[in-house]
Amino acid sequence: MRELLLECHERIKPFIHKTPIMESGMIENFLGNDLYFKCENFQRMGAFKMRAAVNAITQLTDEQRTKGVVTHSSGNFAQALALAARDLGVPAYIVVPSDAPEVKKNAILRYGGEVIECFPSLDARMRTANEIVEEKGVTFIHPSNDLRVIRGNATAAMEMLEIHPDLDILIVPVGGGGLLAGTALAAHYFGANIEVIGAEPLEADDAYRSLLSGKIEGNITTDTIADGLKTQLGDVNFPIIQEHVKRIILVRENEIVSAMRLIWERMKIIVEPSSAVALAALIKERQDFEGKKIGIILSGGNVDLNNLPFE
């Protein structure tokens, strides 16, 4: 796996940004630890998912590329696949729930993807994507439950560990599980005794419950501001998470908003609510992390500026 991850990183380098790692003295003083933010909000199309989309498409055969790709996504993977497909000359069909933020739908169109809206449920998204596969003969690429996607996601943490190999902890938001699984692999193969922790909204806590029960659980509710974390784990990423992740911290909606505002105000950067979940988890359980060297992956920065959770 280590060699596959290194090959993946080299393969996608021409198509991605090596995003910065930032610090905040104020936040570090508040929490009492060394804290490093891997800013994937500065990635092309504004989120870490560009890494996964490029890796997945570059693994296709010439015939598959000619026919095109399809995915279902609440927004960020949709944008990533559309942009990666445009870069590589591949048609892209994107199934998007009707309640996805308009800023993300518009970005898909700007990147050249074809948007197909569906009812906002996981079953509807999967059914619509399968219909497009049957109709057009395209290749389905799952936003999170695909090894090509997981390996692409791993490269964000790999870059962080090149600079800070002595991290004690990595905290990552978890929705579909692709970033958490990829980060866990990166920490396992390129770190030294790094604890990887997932951060999840209480209102979409399937990963937390799955880790406890030992089987994939569905979401009882997805009433969260963190729209990128409304999906659930899959049979490819869940075993990786089970093996390498021991803990997921749940956070409430007001805690997500407070963490998002703190990043905007103190770091002067734009992050979306899903990104802020990781810092919210650290703040909530800060007594457990004092004195530790901690990395956080800020997963993305695609927000609707007309619909912010704070003034």
TrEMBL record:
<dbReference type="GO" id="GO:0070179">
    <property type="term" value="P:D-serine biosynthetic process"/>
</dbReference>
<feature type="domain" description="Tryptophan synthase beta chain-like PALP">
    <location>
        <begin position="13"/>
        <end position="300"/>
    </location>
</feature>
<dbReference type="GO" id="GO:0003941">
    <property type="term" value="F:L-serine ammonia-lyase activity"/>
</dbReference>
<keyword id="KW-0456">Lyase</keyword>
<protein>
    <submittedName>
        <fullName>Threonine dehydratase</fullName>
    </submittedName>
</protein>
<dbReference type="GO" id="GO:0018114">
    <property type="term" value="F:threonine racemase activity"/>
</dbReference>
<dbReference type="GO" id="GO:0000287">
    <property type="term" value="F:magnesium ion binding"/>
</dbReference>
<dbReference type="GO" id="GO:0030378">
    <property type="term" value="F:serine racemase activity"/>
</dbReference>
<keyword id="KW-0663">Pyridoxal phosphate</keyword>
<dbReference type="Pfam" id="PF00291">
    <property type="entry name" value="PALP"/>
</dbReference>
<dbReference type="InterPro" id="IPR001926">
    <property type="entry name" value="TrpB-like_PALP"/>
</dbReference>
<dbReference type="GO" id="GO:0030170">
    <property type="term" value="F:pyridoxal phosphate binding"/>
</dbReference>
<comment type="similarity">
    <text>Belongs to the serine/threonine dehydratase family.</text>
</comment>
<dbReference type="InterPro" id="IPR036052">
    <property type="entry name" value="TrpB-like_PALP_sf"/>
</dbReference>
<dbReference type="GO" id="GO:0005524">
    <property type="term" value="F:ATP binding"/>
</dbReference>
